[in-house]
Amino acid sequence: MVYRRLDPKETVATVAQLVRRIDERFPGVGLVHVCQELLVIAQESSETAERIARPLYALRACIGVVVLAIVASLGFSISLLDIDRANLSAGDLVQGAEASLNGLALIGAAIFFLVTIENRVKRARALAALHELRSMAHVIDMHQLTKDPAIPGVEAVATPSSPLRTLTDFELARYLDYCSEMLALLGKIAALYAQTSVDREVTSAVNEVEVLTTGLSGKIWDKIQAIHTSHRAD
């Protein structure tokens, strides 16, 4: 089972190692701070996913007491009914049966609502955390937007608003690769919620994060391939 599930501790350790790698290669750049924030999110997500997986015993106890109270009240109400079977007509029987079914349906809906509260609470927590991961993916993408490789045979003419291009091709490739790794790790952090929950909405949200990070990473790899193609052409 060790190699069949993501280990939250190993995931956090991998992000921590990436922070050190970026800081050693590009000390003090903004990408280091973004990766440090990713490390914080990884630690929080690890704890949150484990907390979501644990049963909410206090909430279950409260719900159990309320459900027992509803059932006991229903039983007590039925025991107080005084039905005169001798004077009971067919119309009265139909009306009574219809009223009883409606009452049972409402009580059943109320009990179902109470029983599913725990799942809704856990779902809300997971979806809020996954929304933060989606936002983080766009933050990472922002840091690679202006990191474009040079076009072979085209002389670069900078304008006053042009971004500074101080990185060599090797450094640019490493920078873009770090961004791609951060996006990949972001997808793995999201997957921590999928392996602790069978809720369809949570699973769907995790898949959306993974699709987003894969798409953004694909754009980055196009740039990396352009750098490699330029070197082969040279």
Kindly provide the name of the CATH class of the largest domain: Mainly Alpha
List the uncertain runs. none
The whole-number mean of residue pLDDT values reads 83
Name the beta content range: under 5%
Provide the succession of SSEs. HHHHHHH
Radius of gyration from the alpha-carbon trace, in angstroms:
29 Å
**Principal-axes shape call:** elongated
The structure class reads mainly alpha
Through-space gap between termini = 49 Å
Count helical runs: 7
Looking at the overall shape, the CATH architecture of the largest domain is Up-down Bundle
Give the helix level as a range of percent.
over 70%
Count of discrete structural domains: 2
Named CATH topology of the largest domain: Glutathione S-transferase Yfyf (Class Pi), Chain A, domain 2
Annotation, overall tally of beta strands:
0
Largest sheet: none
Describe the structure.
- There is one protein chain.
- The chain is mainly alpha-helical and 234 residues long.
- It is built from 7 helices and no strands.
- The model has no long low-confidence stretch (mean pLDDT 83).
- Helix 1 runs antiparallel to helix 2.
- Helix content is 76%, strand content 0%.
- The two termini are 49 Å apart.
- It has 2 domains: 145 residues, Glutathione S-transferase Yfyf (Class Pi), Chain A, domain 2 (Up-down Bundle), CATH 1.20.1050; 52 residues.
